[in-house]
Amino acid sequence: MNDTVDKLVIFLAKRDGIDKLVKTFQYVSKLVNWHVEATYPDIAQRAKQWEVASGLGRKAFRTGRFLTGFNAIRRNPGSTQTFKVLAVLANAGEMVYFFFDHFLWLSRIGTIDPKLARKMSFISAFGESFGYIFFIISDFILLKEGLKAENKLTASSKDDSKKAEEDIRKIKADRVMRLMAVAANVADLLIALADIEPNPFCNHAVTLGISGLVSAWAGWYRNWPSQ
């Protein structure tokens, strides 16, 4: 019990930890609003207010987040030319997303012209989608390389079984994390597409709600302390 509490404290001390918790509030309230809108309008209205407040709170909390993309490119551009290009494209898209998200937040709270909200939302979502596509491609390439490495280690495990088993365990742990990243990025891509090109599927409350929770909980898993 104490260990779980300690991990929760560490998790919530991270900016990403708080973001995933509030994102859970945001999309649970969206689903609640959809579910009770016709039968309990008062509860639905409260859920909608919770959703909006959570969404705006997340945007405020992400102030300056666009600099993390620049830092990622500067510190870890990739081990090969292919990964360097993918890293630049992915992080550039994410930088556009977080940068214009600031203006979207300011327009929605009325600090700047509210009419700019739609344009800022489109640019932010476009950059987000662009970045996620290349993050997903990178993860799939690394997942494929991990499978090859695991098969090679499995075939040669007789020579040094203890070291091979440890290496295989690390590969499997990395695979789980990358699959969580893919799940989160695909879910967020669906949410971004709802802003770029509104359509009945992506913009449905259930699609958005489930996508938001998949993204939040996959991020929760990835950021949860391992020790």
Automatic annotation (TrEMBL):
Membrane-spanning residues: 83-100, 120-143
BP GO annotations: peroxisome fission; regulation of peroxisome size
A GO-annotated cellular component: peroxisomal membrane
Purpose of the protein: Involved in peroxisomal proliferation. Promotes peroxisomal duplication, aggregation or elongation without fission.
Complex formation: Homooligomer. Interacts with ARC5 and FIS1B on peroxisomes.
Family assignment from sequence similarity: Belongs to the peroxin-11 family.
PANTHER family: PEROXISOMAL BIOGENESIS FACTOR 11, PEROXISOMAL MEMBRANE PROTEIN 11B
Keyword Transmembrane: yes
InterPro entries, sorted: PEX11
Compartments it resides in: Peroxisome membrane
Organism of this sequence: Quillaja saponaria (Soap bark tree)
Alphabetical UniProt keywords: Membrane, Peroxisome, Peroxisome biogenesis, Transmembrane, Transmembrane helix
GO MF entries: identical protein binding
Lipid bilayer topology: Multi-pass membrane protein
Domain of life from the UniProt record: Eukaryota
UniProt-listed Pfam families: PEX11 (PF05648)
Identification of the protein by name: Peroxisomal membrane protein like
